[in-house]
Amino acid sequence: MEDVKDSRLKKFCAKNKVVILGFVCVIAVIALIAVGLTQNQSLPQNVKYGIVLDGGSSHTTLYIYMWPAEKENDTGVVTQLGECLVQGPGISKFAHKTHELKTYLNACMQKAKEIIPVVQYTQTPVYLGATAGMRLLRLENENLADEVLEKLTEVLRSFPFDFQGARIISGKEEGAYGWITINYLLGKFTKKLRWLYPLGNETNNEETYGALDLGGASTQITFVPQNQTIESPNNALYFRLYGKDYNVYTHSFLCYGKDQALLKKLIKDSEAIANPRHWKLSGMPEKYP
Q: Could you say which residues bind ATP here (predicted)?
């Protein structure tokens, strides 16, 4: 009896061999497609975003950054996603028209909303650092400077990001941030993600570059002294970046930026023009004053 059953089963399998093979092939194709789709899907990245507004004396620039949550030697590896030049003068020029600051910043803040994922809005910090233009305004009229910062705080808090503060940074901070930026871009701090450093040779991480930052209202010079000693404590800053300590000299020269230099030149020329003794027409005989 069992021989009869085996004979029937063999006959069934023989007749339906093509069907069975076809079914197996279909299952294999479905499995391959599923694996391919899984491999092509972008894995969720554990990344963070940040917005920095550089409030310079002559203009404001918004920068958008991204970095992985995992740090390298306790320091983040940052990538710039975009930037936006705010149309108009520096924020110090709004001292008597603070009501215009909302319109002033709106276009670039909207661009940030387009670049950063919506789900990351509330976790994205926003910082504004004002430089020499606002330092000068604070020296001239501290109340007006405070009003500008208060309005900036109100405006930036109206956007769906995590506002962290708007303040006037010192000349030392400005010089230090510039030094960190240039050496980071030149690959002097980390060898990770070498494609981030198209500007320089990242193979020598022992030495750093000095930075000379010529701004609109001030100039900063910052570098690491060769003998690692700084005579003036007021010009010394200490950093620990990517697992290494840095002893940095920095000094800011207020009123020695290009715009301030031009202003001084114009004032000097106007004073010369106002003095008749400085008038001398081309081709006039020497005996005439």
A: 216-220
Q: Rg of the Cα trace of the chain?
A: 32
Domain-located, residue 24: no
CATH code: domain of residue 147: 3.30.420.40
When pLDDT is cut at 50, 70 and 90, the band that residue 214 belongs to is confident
User: Number of structural domains, the chain?
Assistant: 2
State the binding site.
216-220
What residues act catalytically? Answer: 174
pLDDT, tens only, 61-95: 999 999 987 776 767 788 999 999 999 999 999 99
The pTM for the full model equals 0.70
Strands 218-223 and 211-214: antiparallel
Strands 125-130 and 162-168: parallel
Residue stretches of the annotated binding site for ATP: 216-220
The two three-digit tokens of residue 198, written as one number:
């198209």
